[in-house]
Amino acid sequence: xxxxxxxxxxxxxxxxxxxxxxxxxxxxxxxxxxxxxxxxxxxxxxxxxxxxxxxxxxxxxxxxxxxxxxxxxxxxxxxxxxxxxxxxxxxxxxxxxxxxxxxxxxxxxxxxxxxxxxxxxxxxxxxxxxxxxxxxxxxxxxxxxxxxxxxxxxxxxxxxxxxxxxxxxxxxxxxxxxxxxxxxxxxxxxxxxxxxxxxxxxxxxxxxxxxxxxxxxxxxxxxxxxxxxxxxxxxxxxxxxxxxxxxxxxxxxxxxxxxxxxxxxxxxxxxxxxxxxxxxxxxxxxxxxxxxxxxxxxxxxxxxxxxxxxxxxxxxxxxxxxxxxxxxxxxxxxxxxxxxxxxxxxxxxxxxxxxxxxxxxxxxxxxxxxxxxxxxxxxxxxxxxxxxxxxxxxxxxxxxxxxxxxxxxxxxxxxxxxxxxxxxxxxxxxxxxxxxxxxxxxxxxxxxxxxxxxxxxxxxxxxxxxxxxxxxxxxxxxxxxxxxxxxxxxxxxxxxxxxxxxxxxxxxxxxxxxxxxxxxxxxxxxxxxxxxxxxxxxxxxxxxxxxxxxxxxxxxxxxxxxxxxxxxxxxxxxxxxxxxxxxxxxxxxxxxxxxxxxxxxxxxxxxxxxxxxxxxxxxxxxxxxxxxxxxxxxxxxxxxxxxxxxxxxxxxxxxxxxxxxxxxxxxxxxxxxxxxxxxxxxxxxxxxxxxxxxxxxxxxxxxxxxxxxxxxxxxx
Length: 716
Prior knowledge:
Blueprint: H1 4-12, H2 16-32, H3 38-54, H4 60-91, H5 103-134, E1 137-139, H6 147-161, E2 168-169, E3 185-191, E4 200-205, E5 214-217, E6 224-228, H7 229-235, H8 237-241, E7 248-258, H9 272-283, E8 288-294, H10 299-308, E9 317-320, H11 358-362, E10 367-371, H12 377-388, E11 392-399, H13 407-417, E12 421-426, H14 434-446, E13 450-452, E14 459-460, E15 463-471, E16 474-482, E17 494-501, H15 504-518, H16 524-528, E18 534-536, H17 540-556, E19 562-567, H18 573-584, E20 588-593, E21 610-614, E22 619-620, E23 623-627, E24 634-638, H19 644-649, E25 650-656, H20 660-674, E26 680-682, H21 702-714
Parallel strand pairs: 1-6, 8-9, 11-12, 12-13, 14-25, 17-22, 19-20, 20-21
Antiparallel strand pairs: 2-4, 3-4, 3-7, 5-6, 7-8, 10-17, 11-15, 15-16, 16-17, 18-25, 19-23, 21-26, 23-24, 24-25
Helix pairs in contact: 2-5, 3-4, 3-5, 4-5, 12-13, 17-18, 20-21
């Protein structure tokens, strides 16, 4: 076995060589493959998040937030994607991915790139620490507290922390404790100066879910001193362990990342709910896929932990800084900053101002809400109106990720109290929201709501609402189709589109989808009967390919042909092949892809595709598709990304926009985004993430420009 010291030096050595090796290996692999590997493209997206943390024009509070987002993204990446790759490696050669690289080579490339990103993360963090000091904001470690702060910390520990921690004496335990992969742990070495008693190792879980991670200390005027919760525990280690007779203590933060995939067995006697509940319990026992530790940890303690965790030096062992779980920095105390974030508030859509009821307005015309610029309150108002409208008899809605105290749920339960029939489709398998969705299911059923919990082997990702009124024995349907979740909290930070409509062709298809969801085993024909919406998994792929084919035919005939696509991810090989075929014959292709982009956008076989990614204050989450269609443009908003999982394994819906003014609005917004030269990065074959060069043109920051564009329209 390779010696511990040699491995330790290898893990903590200068990372410049890793960078050079990673780039060389990456370039060699890219030249041999038709597509960019999905997971490598995702890491490139997370690098764009890190770029925002590095940007000194971004407010300091927001830079900390982006460090937190980067960290949280990476945790989920290891919990899901790396865990999946490890499973595939365990299966063997049959698990080679459809994107022409085998799992082992991808994992190796991931390791190289993550080490590079970690080095950059530490550089940015040290830079931000210097900027915080300029603002008189100090993160104070436990060994730098003044007397007043020491007393405060002891009192805080005794009053708030002590009862929330249970030290684990590791060597006294027959089995190693199950570690929670969302928690951080203080690994401690306990010793006696005179060595009269043997040293011991202990582990303390930092209770950051129950207590604030950041505690503001007594400070001088115009200064803000902050201590981390784990440093409060470090300071009070003598209070915890002194009765064992120890008088020397060293400690370091460690954390594990576990396989978070839920295995759903095929036992037909077990309900989906029971399977998910079992899966959630098993998730806590998932295989460790990454172990992160403070690089200054005691070597003997590190070696002990690695051995007890059943890891080897071939696993993802990552030596980091003193602080882990940076996701908590998304909630860094705002009160310590002099300059507040000048985020503009959402405004009411001009068609819904005044005393007009939302229902009355959309029965007259379609309305497109653009979040987070337009207020989400109008969606809630629509449901509240339906809840008390005596002519409304039925409400059906899909829910994927709901806000913690959801006003959507409140409106729906009030509708039941008012005698309406309410059907809610909850996708229980929304990753990491499974527990919350089980709780919502129980609450809704107690209120009398009919709850549908999904389709076997297929997630329900479409964002749909159908409201039925009966007036003079005539049925009237209205509702909405959205690109984003029905979540009033995320609607303030996610960029999405929501079409409020009473278009009967659209609503007829929405109704068909709900008929299918009510009895998926016997009513598949309702999905295939959809005439207006493009629906997954039955028709969307075929219809998208046909639309691209039409553009190819037009280009070959010497006519104008164009495709504009905005999605979160583009990785579906068949659709990418079709886009590249279109590019080869001269179809103008413009892409706005926030995250994964497996398509090579540069080739000597076709004119370079314009492809950008925008990472800014808001999360770009909307999906929009525009086909030129010989001048009779087809414009869609969609819940589906162009990924195999969405197109073939989910219930998704893409909705056509018929209103010419709304079509123009969507085109204008996309043009603003394609003109972005502040926050747009070029999606090239090298994954370089170079910013679009503003040259001598006017500077365009698309999220600011979009707000101004919509706000101006609202005041015309």
